[in-house]
């Protein structure tokens, strides 16, 4: 009978043959310049990297992060209602949501939520 060493050796040889055949048969001989270049969303990778960056993209990212963290902070508030004082929980939740709503109103008032200008 075959031992474990001989079976593992046969499996490794078969896998190496399959990998060798796959690399030979693949059509990676023609390297396309567009496909080989890194892709950045909305930017031409062949132009200068020191062009001015739109501040609008940065501010939209900050708004997204703020509201993403908001969801991560609201979920535990809902879960701890059983373990805390109802009055303290209510006041804390209302203050937290009011701060977020005031921030949303400020962003809306400043025109940050208008997507097309």
UniProtKB/TrEMBL annotation:
Q: Name one GO molecular function term.
A: NADH dehydrogenase (ubiquinone) activity
What does it do?
Answer: Core subunit of the mitochondrial membrane respiratory chain NADH dehydrogenase (Complex I) which catalyzes electron transfer from NADH through the respiratory chain, using ubiquinone as an electron acceptor. Essential for the catalytic activity of complex I.
Q: Which reactions is this enzyme annotated as catalysing?
A: a ubiquinone + NADH + 5 H(+)(in) = a ubiquinol + NAD(+) + 4 H(+)(out)
Gene Ontology cellular component list: mitochondrial membrane; NADH dehydrogenase complex
Source organism, top-level taxon: Eukaryota
PANTHER family in the record, alphabetically? NADH-UBIQUINONE OXIDOREDUCTASE CHAIN 3
Enumerate the subcellular locations listed in this protein's record, separating them with semicolons.
Membrane; Mitochondrion membrane
Its EC top class is translocase
EC assignment: the record states: 7.1.1.2
Query: Which key words tag this protein in UniProt?
Result: Electron transport, Membrane, Mitochondrion, NAD, Respiratory chain, Translocase, Transmembrane, Transmembrane helix, Transport, Ubiquinone
Question: What residue intervals traverse the membrane?
Answer: 6-25, 57-81, 87-105
Q: Which family does it belong to?
A: Belongs to the complex I subunit 3 family.
- Which InterPro entries does this one have? NADH_UbQ/plastoQ_OxRdtase_su3, NDAH_ubi_oxred_su3_sf
UniProt membrane topology term? Multi-pass membrane protein
Protein's name according to its UniProt entry: NADH-ubiquinone oxidoreductase chain 3
């Amino acid at each position: 009978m075959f031992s474990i060493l001989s079976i593992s050796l046969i499996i490794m040889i078969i896998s190496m043959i399959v990998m060798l055949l796959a690399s030979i048969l693949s059509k990676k001989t023609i390297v396309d310049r567009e496909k080989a270049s890194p892709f950045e969303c909305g930017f031409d990778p062949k132009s200068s990297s020191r062009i001015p960056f739109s501040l609008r993209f940065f501010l939209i990212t900050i708004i997204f992060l703020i509201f993403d963290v908001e969801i991560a902070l609201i979920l535990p508030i809902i879960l701890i209602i059983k373990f805390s004082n109802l009055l303290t929980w209510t006041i804390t939740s209302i203050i937290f949501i009011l701060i977020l709503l005031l921030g949303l109103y400020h962003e809306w008032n400043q025109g940050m939520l208008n997507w097309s200008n």
